[in-house]
Amino acid sequence: MLAAAALSLCHSVHAQQGDGTRVAVATAIVKPAKVEATAERIAAIKAPPGFTVTAFATGLKNIRIIAVAADGTMYVSRRDQGDVLMFKDANQDGVADGPGVTVASRPGAHGLAIRDGKLYLATVKEVFVADIQRDGGLSPLKLIIGDLPDAGQHPNRTLAFGPDGMLYISAGSTCNVCNENNPENATMLRATPDGKQRTIFATGLRNTIGYDWHPRTGELWGMDHGIDFLGDDEQKEELNKLERGKQYGWPHVYGDGAIYPQSTPPGDISKQEWKAHSEPMVLGYTAHAAPMQMLFYRATAFPAEYQGDAFVTMRGSWNRSTPSGYEIVRVRFADGQPKSIEPFVTGFLTDGGKTHIARPVGLAVAADGSLLMADDANGVLYRIAYTGSGQAKAALPAAPAGPMQQQAQRGNNVPLALTRPESNGGGKLAVQSAGFRPDELLAPKYSEYADGVSPPLSWQAVPGAQSYAIIMEDPDAPQKPFVHWLAWNIPASVTSLPEGLQEQPRLTQPDGVLQGRTTRGSIGYYGPRPPVGDAPHHYHFQVFALDTVLQLGFGADRDQLLKAIQSHVLAKGEIVGRYAQKQPPLK
């Protein structure tokens, strides 16, 4: 029977809003009771022929994410205990040599990654780094990022280094369904290893805890959590190919293009417009299974047919009348593309779904090629080993860096928009600002070190103009030039913009103005944020008068905007402001 604390509830919920939507949804809350992971229950865990599942270590409480160093030393984070444990298996008998050794302590310790002899640790809002010492211990933790967004419903930040050498950070949504105020929520972030620079790599991801790069193609794949309270079979867990600058639907569109009935996009954007701007999932898996850590198998301990396939832990449902998840699944790939998702290790759900002995979270490949799985319910670190015949003969090489590097380099090392051939044509346009004079230092309120509000702009009316567009760039940034603001379809009757425009895809004042994606990866104005101590950077506010209203959707990047305005420029001009930051911001 379900534990007394586990609530089972089924009823119909009706969602209704101003667009006439009316949807009846049968919802369920079913939490299988936790029972002890006895030797008998562990022995009943099921895996394919030739595989064995054993306990590597037990009694570890809330273990979450696993990382394995080059010498085979294993590190496991414990969120509720706020620490990182170290394990070794020097005699290679498949059992930990002793109790876990605490090597780091930070409240909410969760995400782990290892690169170049360093361990990286993520909490809710921070990323730390430490040198791995010869005995496996760590040097004192050093803070490299301290301002990740507040977490809300999804506080479990995860880390992974891409083949491009950059640190990728998953930042889940604050809610089940909502329009986020912080553009870094519900995203995949990309940061330099020192934490000094980061951008938003992909958006519209409710909570992509697990992700990895295909060893042959170098492409990034991730499993995203589906929306709750849509019934037993909705929303399926999503497998997505993650690419720079793309949006993956959440919160208004999900799966292969289904419309969420209750939410409303900002700025009077229709859900069909949002759908047209969103990437559909590539594959789906049983709803509410809760995907966690994900990895591609590259080692040789398993049969060759497993190489290049991915494994994902499914922590298990609470929002489904028949529980799902509580397993490890295999994602079969062929020619670099996913073909199916199927159970691999099952049996953590027991007594016909009424109880469970594990909620799988962490997943890693040990030095001997076996899989390690962390259970955050009973605190067992499991080992999945292959003892049959027909093992792979050679490990797959590291994923190629090319695809990620090519994505990152798009739009870099190019001239300012005003001098690009796409903007050729027409006469000069005078541009002014009530907030600063030409080549003057911008007030701090216009920078991201302070208020981060857009400055007021005005320009002369151009006869025959049907709309205006704005491109703000910084040619002094490492990404040359850094795009800080894109706006277009400013009505022909509008020749000035007030201070502090909304940072959303579509404005309703002035009505119909669309905004695009900055180099940061956010939409709307993103103010100056030069490195502390740099000489003043130059910020070019470039205005273009156009003979047309652009047929270009919200969220476009600078190159897409330039392509759209080509042959339509009647006049162009700019005003340049400067900004420098002498003092580091207060933590």
Describe this protein's structure:
With 587 residues, this protein is mainly β. It folds into 2 domains: 9-407, TolB, C-terminal domain (Neuraminidase, 6 Propeller), CATH 2.120.10.30; 412-579, PEBP-like (Phosphatidylethanolamine-binding Protein, Alpha-Beta Complex). The protein is 5% helix and 36% strand. The strands form 11 sheets. It has a 7-stranded mixed beta sheet, with helices on one face. Strands 4-31-30-29 form a 4-stranded antiparallel beta sheet, with no helix packed on it. Strands 5-6-7-8 form a 4-stranded antiparallel beta sheet, with no helix packed on it. The radius of gyration is 26 Å and the shape is globular.
Short description:
This protein has 587 residues and is mainly beta.
**Secondary structure: helix percent:** under 10%
Strand order of the largest sheet: 32-41-40-35-36-39-38
Q: What is the number of independent domains?
A: 2
Name given to the CATH homologous superfamily of the largest domain: TolB, C-terminal domain
Q: List the total number of helices.
A: 4
The averaged pLDDT comes out at 95
CATH architecture annotation of the largest domain: 6 Propeller
Quantity of strands, as a count: 41
